[in-house]
Amino acid sequence: MGFPGEPRQLTGSCLCGAVRYTIRGPVRDIWACHCRFCRRLHSHVAAYAACAPEDIAIEDGRKLRWYRSSPSIRRGFCGKCGAQMFYAPLDGGHFSIAAGTLDEPTGLKLTLHLCTAQKGDYYAIADDVPQLAGHPRNGAGNG
Fold first, then answer.
1. Nearest residue to 48 via CA among 90, 75, 86
2. Does the keyword Metal-binding apply (predicted)?
C-alpha cells in the first residue's frame, strides 16, 4: 500500500528562501492541528500536508535545523528566518509539510481538524470540515 493522496509535484520554501523542497508523489490533503504544542510553535493553528519520506527532496538543506520536540517527533525549521516547515515522526511513517510553505497552486484542501479538545478558547472552528478531539495516531497532541 502506498501513501494516500493524489500523485503530484509540489514545491515550497521557507520565508527567506534558504530552504527549498520538492515533493514528487502522493500528497495527503491538509490537516489543521489545534493541539497546544502546534499552537505555540506556529503562534496559532498548524496546517500540514504530508507525503512519504522518500517523496520529498530538500535542496541545499544546510540551513535546515531540526528540533526534537518529543521522544518520537522532530520538527524542521529554517536556521536563517526561523520558519517552521516540517513535522517528522522518527518512525518514518510520513513526512508532514507546513501548508503555508507550499508554493501555490497546491490543489490541496483542508480535510480534517484534529486535537480539537485542546483548541484555543479565543476562536471557533466555523466550517463543515470533520473534527477529531485527539490525534488519529495516538489520541493525544502532536508533541
1. 86
2. yes
